[in-house]
């Protein structure tokens, strides 16, 4: 009686704003005593107070038992408070839940409708799998209650129970069907909602209800229920296309007549999702013309996204994106309107507009659209120059860097200049709201949209590839979010696929790599490391397209090389070797004493860099450690072991090659030593082209390829002393072994333990080649040996570059076309396994990322 | 239509009501409440009433100093949710006669009861204002009757005695000071 009431508590809280926590602590102590009291009124008031504190974020699980006590109170007011507290605070693991079973059962069977209602509400919320199983039948019994109010609640409650107790669905579905005929509209509404929810996950089970629902759709006038039924048909129509024809009439009628935007929205949505717009029946538009339903939907959508109401604009754009999937030509006409939405200050609307815009781009509009999006990125970057501006992935300072970096790319080509020119008008207009364009999520979406619309359908819409590459390079500076992987993949993809752009792309790569600030930022863990590696690959692979430059090799061996990942380092080193040998070949053509001097100095400088990379601790003095003979070999191995294998093997390979050059050019001569001219041909024997990801699997196994047989005599397992080593030729040829499936293996096992163990040996033993290891001495486990690096392994049919894991590439001659990569023609009569491949009809719709993504 | 949650948050970021229709841990709930509140409170008046938050579409509407916020599925009807929110506010307004934030603070249980009548387990179940108000009125009447019946019959004497004792002690303490 004299305890603090709920009102007192709340007033007290408001009065004690300064030391709220302390006040709550004291109140909780009081409440702890109060819930223990035998007086139910006091207990229920305490539970109410707890409930309030719970809402403020304080735990009340300790009082769960007391809550159950209050739920069991005979007085409705207290029961109601108890149930409320239970629904708010109980969770699936609350242990007292099992105490509630009988309590709820009693309430469900109560003669007092209010108690039944409270129990149904509560049960729907707190049901666990056990409670649902125990009480399902009790709730089912309530479904026939005389009051529609209770029937309605029972329907929804049973739905929740069925979610926890799926076995109940069998009993529920026929009942639901009956409730669809209920005389009371609110019960019908509840039944429709429940069927709608159930049909979302499993539409097939509810197809039989379609006629009844169709009847409701054509007879009811209540918009709330209509929306639900229309929504329900959106789940059913995709699995039963005949429904679309049936729905055409009622839906188009609703679309034409309704004034409720929410119903109109739902109808248009269902018409699109259920492909009702695909039904070839005419409808009459507002002025009586006969038009396609799809056109009608497009007309109605204009009402939405041209509205001044932001909400309607938003849902209009959402639906437009859906319509675009089915009928892109109907959306294309609204290009300007949608583009204008890109400058909306509201992030939600911008994101949706971006969706539509990226699907809209055509050959004609692509460049303008991309420039518009780029300008948003650049402008907000300018805003980021102010110190207080929020940074994206890069800190504010780094963003400022990126801006300063921009002019460097400015000189890259005409296309870039024009991209810069496009900034001016929108800058004046101040259209891009800085806050929306600064949002990292939005920036990411913008970059993805730009790249997506440029490369869609194998560059279907692209007319100017140099501009595209310049745009990608610009994005490196302006993105402001982490799009490293995306940019690196796209850069490689376009360069490898489009022969005409390679030269420009190589220039651009050189420019990116020359930006020491960009490189050092990437090395310091910042963005763009992958993009730089891609640029390194491009520069190395296509350096012969540009005038040879002796500095490229050094550019590709930056001082902070070790800060990149293993694969990236390997790419850099390999590319450096390519550019160096390319330059050597070039100068070999006009050899002179000056050139000789230059070769000497460049070679020795690279030699120093390499040995520093190989022996970071010993400094430049150990430059000739490689030449020091067998004594130093141990040191070399030890030192290099600290480097990752793929990096150290490439470094040493390069060092070996350069040593050859160094020896050959030790004396000035009248003409270049032949090695200078020839070294680069190691990398140019075959051209690398994109290959469909599925192509590798289609390469037929060559006749007589035997991978199961032993190469050497296996060492018998002496501990077992059973198996004599089998003669190497005994095994079946692989092709037949592969054709017979596992049962053959089983029978082979059963021949005897000896063979079984032998096989096990083969699988686990270090002396056996595994099936997937394609030849080459490196396949053997064992420490790397300098001699193993196949610098001149041409006769094996595998060029040195093939060391780089580059799964998507293969050697094949192939004409590149701008728009559609053709199916690769068989390789010329080269000495390669790939030349024998019989792969007609390989789908060359190369997926994104089919470039040398292994970088 | 399946609503994941509904909550009310004041302009100062205080939660005034929170109802969850999906099973979620307390920590997750608080995280969502915090993140979504921040998103909603940062919105400007002339922006649309929908925000995308993870796999949920947040539909909100501001009434005076309170934001009514609901989370729905991505392919649910946002406009319908706005109408439901509006309907809820209309019922609250009728019930409290010009509802204000204080009403909802001091009688938060009533707000929950009304919400329960309109939305059950994430499904909008009653859209008629009259029907909702009738049910709530009936329930309140029953409760009032019960309190009246209590009379003085079962006064908590123990409680009275304890309170008196405490008061005396406090009085003494303050006197000694």
TrEMBL record, chain A:
Residues 718-855 are annotated as: Disordered. Part of the AP-3 complex, an adaptor-related complex which is not clathrin-associated. The complex is associated with the Golgi region as well as more peripheral structures. It facilitates the budding of vesicles from the Golgi membrane. The lineage of its organism: Eukaryota, Fungi, Fungi incertae sedis, Zoopagomycota, Kickxellomycotina. It comes from Coemansia biformis. One of its GO terms (cellular component) is Golgi apparatus. InterPro entries: AP3_complex_dsu, ARM-like, ARM-type_fold, Clathrin/coatomer_adapt-like_N. This is AP-3 complex subunit delta. Residues 753-775, 798-807 have a biased composition (Basic and acidic residues). Adaptor protein complex 3 (AP-3) is a heterotetramer. GO terms for biological process: Golgi to vacuole transport; protein targeting to vacuole. Belongs to the adaptor complexes large subunit family. It is found in: Endomembrane system; Golgi apparatus. It comes from the Eukaryota. Its main location: membrane. Keywords: Golgi apparatus, Membrane, Protein transport, Repeat, Transport. The keyword Transport applies. Residues 21-377 form the Clathrin/coatomer adaptor adaptin-like N-terminal domain. Residues 808-822 have a biased composition (Basic residues).
UniProtKB/TrEMBL annotation, chain B:
Pfam families: Clat_adaptor_s. Keywords: Cytoplasmic vesicle, Golgi apparatus, Membrane, Protein transport, Transport. The keyword Iron does not apply. Its main location: membrane. Signal peptide: none annotated. GO terms for biological process: cytosolic transport; intracellular protein transport. GO terms for molecular function: clathrin adaptor activity. InterPro entries: AP1_sigma, AP_complex_ssu, AP_mu_sigma_su, Longin-like_dom_sf. GO terms for cellular component: AP-1 adaptor complex; cytosol. It comes from the Eukaryota. Residues 3-142 form the AP complex mu/sigma subunit domain. SUPFAM superfamilies: SNARE-like (SSF64356). CDD domains: AP1_sigma. It is found in: Cytoplasmic vesicle, Clathrin-coated vesicle membrane; Golgi apparatus. Belongs to the adaptor complexes small subunit family. This is AP complex subunit sigma. It comes from Coemansia biformis. The gene is VAS2.
